[in-house]
Design brief:
Distance between the termini: 33 Å
Strand content: under 5%
Largest sheet: none
Order of helices and strands: HHHHHHHHHHHHHHHH
Radius of gyration: 23 Å
Helix content: over 70%
Structural class: mainly alpha
Shape: globular
Number of strands: 0
Length: 338
């Protein structure tokens, strides 16, 4: 009896914590990898839109005169008006994005569960791109209008991350989830890098209003790609291979539903893992957004770099950040597989 019991327990003890069906190709031609690249592009555009004002506000307010051996900026273009905003007013304008951003996080996740992550994410990105086109006009009408527009931009972008996670709940096998999500999330840092680098050049060469027209136009164009090529789940994808569809569905078979009509708020409030994730995310976002909103102004007002140098130097930390995102995802999946 003891030997029989031991033999019955052995297979159970040897079973992996995460079932691992044989995986088809996970290269760039797979549907789930294509989704990661499309999500990467969506987040790149989203963060370029929110980072544009951080560097453009220096040109909007006239910046500070260069000192030392720094290159003197060219003459200001006539189509680029300058506004005499105090440091306090600039801080209010830069922070107004977050007035709305925090309000739609939970709503975006709940709405994505009901309506689908593709629709919610694409709609949020399209709306924020359209609002970005209105920034120069809002600045012309006054600080209050610009603050309100930035708050609306935050409301629109607040749904993007929750909607993305709803998509990955349907698309990402457990042993690939970290790398796929981190490839997508790296778009945040590369978008910030691109925005700070390019916006400084545009401000100095073409005038700061063109930053918002170009970035907003690119965002609207990317939304077209998003709605054309992204599908809500593997079952609705017309070009996915049968092997990959079966692999994703079977790997997620033991996963619970991605949406519930009622939220277990009490259990969530008592969950230590939830609090650990919340504290970690708060600390990393605090540092990320402090650098994003304050570094270009510091580079201009304190170190007196011109716009081109400012954009380049402010963008450099995000190269390592983006690479770290991707490497961390690969490491996490490796540890889970082990």
């Amino acid at each position: 009896m003891e030997r029989a019991a031991g033999s019955a327990e052995a297979p159970h003890e040897a079973a992996p914590l995460l079932p691992r069906p044989p995986a088809p190709s996970s290269g760039p031609c797979s549907a789930r990898c294509a989704l990661a690249l499309l999500a990467h592009g969506a987040l790149l555009v989203a963060y370029a839109l929110r980072a544009a004002l951080s560097i453009a506000i220096i040109a909007i307010t006239g910046g500070s005169p260069p000192s030392g051996n720094h290159i003197t900026p060219g003459p200001r273009l006539p189509q680029a008006p300058v506004y005499n905003w105090s440091a306090e007013t600039q801080g209010i304008v830069l922070s107004s994005f977050f007035y709305g951003y925090g309000l739609t996080q939970a709503l975006g996740g709940y709405g994505a569960g009901l309506l689908g992550g593709k629709l919610v994410l694409g709609s949020g990105l399209l709306l924020s791109s359209a609002l970005t086109l209105l920034v120069p006009r809002a600045a012309e009408l006054g600080v209050g209008v610009l603050v309100g527009l930035q708050a609306l931009l935050g409301l629109a972008q607040g749904v993007i991350f929750p909607a993305q996670y709803t998509l990955w709940a349907k698309w990402a096998p457990p042993l690939e989830r970290s790398r796929l999500m981190n490839i997508a999330d790296a778009g945040c840092t590369f978008g910030t890098f691109s925005a700070l680098l390019v916006a400084g050049i545009i401000c100095q060469s073409l005038g700061w209003p063109l930053v918002f027209y170009i970035f907003g136009g690119v965002g609207c164009a990317w939304c077209l790609c998003w709605f054309l090529f992204v599908y809500e789940d593997p079952a609705s994808h017309p070009w996915i291979s049968a092997g990959e569809r079966e692999y994703i569905v079977s790997s997620l078979a033991h996963q619970g539903s991605s949406h519930g009509r009622s939220l277990p708020l009490g259990a969530m409030a008592k969950s230590l893992p939830v609090w650990a994730i919340a504290v970690a995310c708060f600390c990393t976002d605090w540092l990320f957004y402090m650098l994003l909103t304050s570094m270009p102004t510091f580079m201009s007002n304190v170190l007196h770099f011109d716009l081109r140098e400012n954009g380049l130097l402010s963008s450099l930390p995000y190269i390592g950040n983006g690479l770290g995102h991707i490497l961390a995802g690969l490491l996490a999946d490796f540890l889970l597989a082990r």
